[in-house]
Amino acid sequence: xxxxxxxxxxxxxxxxxxxxxxxxxxxxxxxxxxxxxxxxxxxxxxxxxxxxxxxxxxxxxxxxxxxxxxxxxxxxxxxxxxxxxxxxxxxxxxxxxxxxxxxxxxxxxxxxxxxxxxxxxxxxxxxxxxxxxxxxxxxxxxxxxxxxxxxxxxxxxxxxxxxxxxxxxxxxxxxxxxxxxxxxxxxxxxxxxxxxxxxxxxxxxxxxxxxxxxxxxxxxxxxxxxxxxxxxxxxxxxxxxxxxxxxxxxxxxxxxxxxxxxxxxxxxxxxxxxxxxxxxxxxxxxxxxxxxxxxxxxxxxxxxxxxxxxxxxxxxxxxxxxxxxxxxxxxxxxxxxxxxxxxxxxxxxxxxxxxxxxx
Length: 359
Hints:
- With about 350 residues, the chain is α+β, with helices and mostly antiparallel strands.
- The protein has one domain (about 5-350): Penicillin V Acylase, Chain A.
- The chain is built from 6 helices and 17 strands.
């Protein structure tokens, strides 16, 4: 790890270990910085069925209308200040992960058992947004993490939205990972109807419990280092296996274990010279978090086996979104700069047939 990195997190929040439910979605998000200063944020998307995801480009001045409780589009109405590229689900305007032309990125991450939205009075419904509208609202209106934090801290209304059948008939319980082109990161959570925003020194996010719990949990791994350990100071007795410096960090797919492992990897890797090399490094790291279908089984819901649907990486300097899917491992790229001046919504498929190079 970077020298003393975990020690900067050595504080106690007074939070005991909690029993929390297995997540339906098991996403992992990271951030990397190239030596040329470019910021790359990347994440996996896991779910138990096909979300019919597409790449979508929203033009400037696109009219968004937030969902209100019960499902009608009677929430906040606004027009986008910025062009946006992102990944949607089920053909909706909701953006699971996206980036705007200013280099702001927002991702939706599952937070079951903890996310709790506001009971918005009827008279204020028209000023509220649902949990799945948050990413579009942030990407439409803000250019930096600091701007987002000021807006969140001044108060936004997140209503309970609409129960969705793909989520078992309840609103999506979410928290939000925000990055900007300067390398700042922010986590936004709505718990018991109250909004919290945390600057994120790690750039890492997974799922439940809440972000402050994950930071406190890192105290258990203060001695983890990427360096191979010697058994004698003169190096005359050494382990015959590489990688023993990180022995003991958890390797399972629970959110707490993935969080620790993602911090360990992102804080240990050698910085890449350029943005593109950092993109490839991000995919290499996230390969270690891929969940093959069937590795996680929910006995209460046979067949609802969580697996990795797609992985994406956003180059926040060059405004390029890279992705591959479970069915097509070829790396694809959408350059937002090429489409930023469009005057209509554009859609691009994510699951083209994969071409296998035969030599």
